[in-house]
Give the backbone structure.
Amino acid sequence: MTRTVARILREEDGQDLIEYTLVAALISIASVLAIGSVGNALDQRYDTMATDITGS
């Protein structure tokens, strides 16, 4: 049991996978925030254009 734990602590094979997963998660979060921000800006722009067209 002690050998197994020592071997797991020495190995670094899973470390790369964890790092790539964290990077992918951060990119996903940044993308969602950016897309939400752009969506809100477009929504406001279309509302302004619709108001200008209808003259209200």
In short: The CA atoms of residues 2 and 31 lie 43 Å apart.
